[in-house]
Design brief:
Beta-lactamase; two-stranded antiparallel sheet
Length: about 375
């Protein structure tokens, strides 16, 4: 698979909030002049002009909530996208997972310095991988060195290219099988010596939650986050292949290039992502979640500080990766915290200022084009 295809359609996912720079001071207020959201509206329309079928977006600044849509949610009927659309959020799932792990730490049920092997004995072994030398913290901030299973060529052909996808879209993958794919490769580096985004890290984190609690990780997310925050549009689908209504269709090229036919990929078994990226949500819920997280409603101060302690990678300027949470410095000096996510036919972003006051979440129902970074810049910088 090409690098472009891997970034655009795997769970590593089209995250324009990507990764690099560490904390550089408090978030600044969005500049005046964006009260009518004109720049944001223009950026959303530009995404559709770039070829994405449709976009749905909701912003919240204090008590003011604003939504816009552009393009279509269904290429066959021409039905427009809705501000209430539910969609697959891909790797935004990682922030939910990391939050639960940190809650368990706050309860004294595990430590971020525990080895993976303590909770999942013998699972991380092979070709130089050794779970005895990898900590839970290194899973959450992607410094484990564990190979990313979605980068495996056979997995890519099976689930991200046309022939394989239509043959296997409804297959159920067990999380242990996903880990085994990674174990067939050598580690990217020795634990703690570098940084590389790996979906395997969060499959393992989900399994640790299950081992520590005795319950499915999705049940813990529902009990600890979804229900308390009343996130009615948010779900952990497991093996359910459909997206609840209201929702739009999701489209992909299912090819190594961004040209060629467009395919409806709405229905799929999200077990191929498990706790690295299977969740479904909507823009209002994502804004509520990230605002609550940054305001300290979900984690004690100690755990939130750990979550916001970032590592950087020179490949991604102006961004740092914490524990399932990214800090991105925009061109106007504003810092936004959040995560991006991509899975077949769906590219999403959710970010908020450090005080939780100004939040933005949006989704593209096509995975091959569209400048998501420009949309974020437009909302928070007014350009």
């Amino acid at each position: 698979m090409s690098t472009r295809m891997t970034v655009r359609t795997t769970l590593v996912a089209a995250t324009a909030v990507a990764l690099s720079a560490a904390l550089a001071g408090p978030a600044l207020a969005a500049p005046a002049g964006n009260d009518d959201h004109g720049p944001t509206r223009q950026a959303v329309q530009a995404v559709v002009k770039d070829g994405v079928p449709g976009v749905t977006l909701t912003a919240k600044d204090g008590r003011n909530v604003w939504s816009t849509t552009a393009g279509v949610g269904d290429l066959k009927t021409g039905k427009p996208r809705s501000a209430d659309d539910r969609y697959r959020v891909g790797s935004i799932t990682k922030t939910f997972v990391a939050t639960v792990v940190l809650q368990l730490e706050a309860e004294g049920r595990l430590s971020l310095d525990d080895s993976v092997d303590k909770w999942l004995p013998g699972l991380v072994r092979g070709n130089g991988h050794d779970g005895r030398k990898v900590t839970l913290r290194q899973l959450l901030n992607h410094t484990s060195g564990i190979y990313n299973y979605t980068a495996d060529e056979t997995f890519g052909r099976t689930y991200f290219l046309k022939d394989g996808f239509f043959e296997h879209r409804y297959d159920t993958q067990e999380p242990e099988e996903l880990v085994a794919i990674a174990m067939a490769h050598k580690p990217d580096f020795a634990p703690g010596t570098s940084w590389n985004y790996s979906n395997t890290n969060y499959v393992l984190a989900g399994l640790v939650i299950e081992k520590a609690t005795g319950r499915p990780y999705g049940e813990e997310i529902r009990r600890r986050i979804i229900k308390p925050l009343e996130l009615d549009g948010t779900s952990v689908p497991g093996t359910r292949v459909t997206v609840p209504q209201p929702s739009s269709r999701a489209y992909s090229k299912l090819a190594e290039t961004a040209t060629g036919p467009t395919y409806d990929v709405t229905k799929l078994n999200p077990s191929l992502a498990f706790s690295a990226g299977e969740m479904i949500s909507d823009s209002a819920d994502l804004n509520r979640f990230y605002s609550a997280l940054l305001r300290g409603r979900l984690l004690p101060p100690k755990q939130l500080k750990q979550m916001k302690t970032t590592v950087t990678d020179e490949t991604f300027p102006n961004t740092g990766y914490g524990l399932g949470l990214m800090d991105h410095k925009l061109s106007c000096g504003v810092h936004v915290w959040g995560h991006g996510g991509g899975i077949h036919g769906s590219v999403s972003e959710a970010v908020t200022t450090a005080d939780g006051r100004h939040s933005l979440a949006f989704n593209l129902n096509g995975d091959w084009s569209g400048d998501t970074q420009a949309v974020i810049e437009a909302e928070f910088c007014g350009k």
